[in-house]
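Progress against Task 2.4 (sequence-to-structure conversion) is shown through the following example record, which the project officer requested during the mid-term review.
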Amino acid sequence: MTALWGISFDATPISGVVVEFVKTAKHFADRDRRVVLDLGYDIKADKGAFFRPYTDESRLLPDWVDLGRIGGVEEIPGYDSDFVAEVLREVVGRGSAPHLLPRIDAVAAQLSDLIVETWEAHDVSTVMVENGTLPENITYTKALHLAIEKYGARRNLGRYVLWRDHDLMWQSEPSSGKYGVYPYPATPKPPNSPHIHYLALHEQARGKTLEWAHLRAVDVLPNAFTHRKATVHDGNADFRREHGIPADAPLIARCTRVIRQKRIDRDLHLLAAIPDAYLFVAGDTGESAEEHRRLTSLAADLGVTDRVVFGGWLAPHEDDVGRSTGSRYSVRDLLAHADLASFLTSYDYESYGNPVGEAIASGVPYMSTRYELYDTVYGSKGFRAPLLTEDIPDACFVRQVRDLLADDEKRAQMAEHNFQLGERGSRTAKDLLDRLVLTPMDPRVRLSVVLPVYNEAANLPWVLESLYQQRGLDRSTYEVVLVDNNSTDDTVDVVNAFIAEHPDLAVHIVAEPEQGVSCARRTGMRFASERSRGRVNAEERFYLVSADADCRVDEDWLFELFTAMESGKAAIAVCDYHYSAEHFAGRPRLWDAITKTLRCRAVTFALFGGFPDGKGFAVDRDVHDRVGGIEIFYQLRDGEFVNHLSDDWDFGITVRGSGEDIGYAPKARVEINPRRVDHAIDEVITGRAYGSDGIIVMRDIRPETTAVAADLTEDQARQAWEFSIKDFTPKNTILPVLLTPSLLDDDAVIEFFTPSLAERLGKRIAEIKDEMRMTDFTPIHSYKTPSYRLYFEFADEIFARLRAAVGEDIGHPPPLPPCLRDVPPDRFAEFVKYYCEDRESGEAHNYFGNGGVF
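Structure tokens generated for the chain above:
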């Protein structure tokens, strides 16, 4: 049985960090992983536990957690608590003591070897590091970084490490300066390791981490809470009586360490203003004897001593650890008797506020301060509570709390609202862990098909069936990743029904909250890439495949894409697509415009490889990751940001621009849903199928009626063809050689263009690239503008070559825009430049339109 190895930098047998580890590790234990936890006694210097043997610590943890530690650490010369404390004080806090740096590196190297040996002995398959970035012991952190790389390479593992930071320098008492100041030069930055997936507790922590370290693999994994309402039962019925709390007295619960930063003094002042209430403080009074004395003295001064219970350490929720500590009662037992939970902490001490989460999960209302991250974690999510904004409870806050304690119905409503809200978010941890680690990819899987979906319940059955009925590949070699993009119909139910009926094909459902097919495709590609990192043999290539939810793939589609990728060096394989002629029976003019476009496509794609279309392409996962994956560009429309539709084209351009090849797989065919044409035909005719003025966005293309469409008139057919060929030619005939001028040395390409045209195109491309390299910084235009310019300059000759290669019916270039028709020939190229680069009016974009819907 392989093991999950946990490392806590907290150096205590039970703490919030340890409890969170246990809750997360339970997902692994439920899947037959052995769980081993290193409590960090040999890591943190200020807990007085360095090299101390374990005694009865295991009784605080569930039976399925074994305690472990790295063997031989105490034998490393110079590694002890004094050394760790000196490094924290002198190197991290003060940025001095350069003489310690060689010792840090030497000890880290020896530590890393011992860590690897220990992991080998335990057959570790997953590592979870808790709080390793917090620079309490940068020597151990550096050793972990080294060990992770060694062990991952030795065992050929993907992202087998989950590195979760509960506290970061900017969240942990920043005013003390204990960890130095930003950008924390002495703290080892988290590396962009192919073996580590980083986890932050909330979006603010994730954002600040990315500002500091620019990591690729970072997700938000909120603290997990078992959502089960705390109740009075036989085991805890005597809780109040045993602690001298009257049965009918309002009880405030404070679950916290008894240290100055927790500001328990605020609870005492509040208690003094609510004469009938009691306060129970669940925390170790021995941790800071000075603070305990201060609080008991304050309680006496305020006259509340007889209503304050310093109850000592209570066990964490029994659902979390499964054991009792020395106490007969748990935190959940306290909350079962409490009317209100308190978290009146100091502003900059807490990052998450676990007591708030515990109260929410137990169905108990709470009060809190608006500490630094309260709104990020709870307030912005809609949780309701009285919030203290003053240093000491003022009259307004006291009144809110007193009224809440006196109103049973109001407390119940607030608690229920918070409970329901918290329960909906509690699935986040399980879903993320399933995605990254716990539902491993079958080692035989070589392809992940990504399917963005928005309200496609009607089409999905036959789309999924077409993916299920693929020939030439065993279903164990591919999986489907369906990305639900906020569907409001029965899309998810349809998918779940399909999964139940087809257990031999792995199908995963992933949610993407930002609307847009580009966003959904990006999320699906990232999901598939992350999952595949955990299983793929280093000798194998793994492929991410894009499909559209309204298009049906042919039976050999996936096999042909796979074969094309396996047999060549191309980073992307582009499929072919077609329409069913039956759908356009009785509309010969429209069918002629469509088929001419597809005939041109077949010729140029065979020559240049083309560019990926979301309807169907495969990409090498490593190339996808290296170029940064699908990138979303945003444009302004009517004063609002909208995501640009051409993510698939832009991705292909990025890949080709990075020096990689794109191949064409003509036998991998996709049948396009004709509704794309039926619904957009009026705008196809005018060249505005998806936008205008350079704004190209996704729109709903579902037909509003089922009426049989009529054929185009001769004028409409001519307009539709002109916009189709104007959209096609710059992108499919000119852009490939613009991005890869070496294509103009290929014999087949030279034959297509003729030697003279190929030579002049190459020369002109070099001139335009040189001219634009310091003036064009806008990605969305950086390839369109030069393509448009080259089109105008060479249109007559290119169309002549298309007629020769495709057929005389291709005809001649559509008429020039009026502003260019009377330009003197010797200044034509000059004014073409101004026309194509006039982004204020968008005239060039409107001229070329987006008739490529065919």
